């Protein structure tokens, strides 16, 4: 299983609707070959100002990509959990992976997880085992689209 772990600086992409790419965040990273995504808050000033610093913000398993002319596809998921600002402490549940992401200022990881980091990521993905699909998935054909399926609204802020 290919697991993408990436740091976020703000909330809203994805939002509770489960559409990754509404603001075109992470651009071509969304088009990489992954089976699951774990979005975690960065630890810098912007992430802190949005109330997501150091937290697991969302989990998506089973991606469905729709190409809409953005830098990368819009992605919905077979199983989607959105924590937003109410996420869990990443360093508590994945200390080795968090240390790698934060100490080395890694923006995203897809390949090269150590055995321990991979086990931590898989344990976090288990939180989504019984999760429902992205709310927008019902309207996502999975085919190249002519228009966005995502609903773009202003970026929310938890603070």
Walk me through what this model shows:
The protein is α+β, with helices and mostly antiparallel strands and 159 residues long. It has one domain (3-139). 19% of the residues lie in helices and 23% in strands. The protein is built from 4 helices and 6 strands. Strands 1, 2, 3, 4, 5 and 6 form a 6-stranded mixed beta sheet that branches. Strand 3 (55-66) and strand 4 form a beta hairpin. 44% of the residues are buried. Residues 140-148 have low confidence and may be disordered.
Attribute tags:
23% strand, single chain, alpha+beta, 159 residues
Short structural summary:
By secondary structure, the chain is α+β, with helices and mostly antiparallel strands. 19% of the residues lie in helices and 23% in strands.
Strand content: 15-25%
Q: Cα distance, first to last residue?
A: 35 Å
User: What is the number of helical segments per DSSP (H or I, 4+ residues)?
Assistant: 4
- Rg calculated over all Cα atoms: 14 Å
Largest sheet, strands/sense/barrel? 6 strands, mixed
Helix content: 10-25%
User: What count of structural domains?
Assistant: 1
Given as residue ranges, the uncertain stretches (5+ residues, pLDDT < 50) are: 140-148
Output mean pLDDT.
87
What class do helices, strands and sheet pairing give?
alpha+beta
Give the ordered list of helices and strands: EEHEEEHHEH
Got a strand count?
A: 6
The backbone outline, from C-alpha atoms, is globular
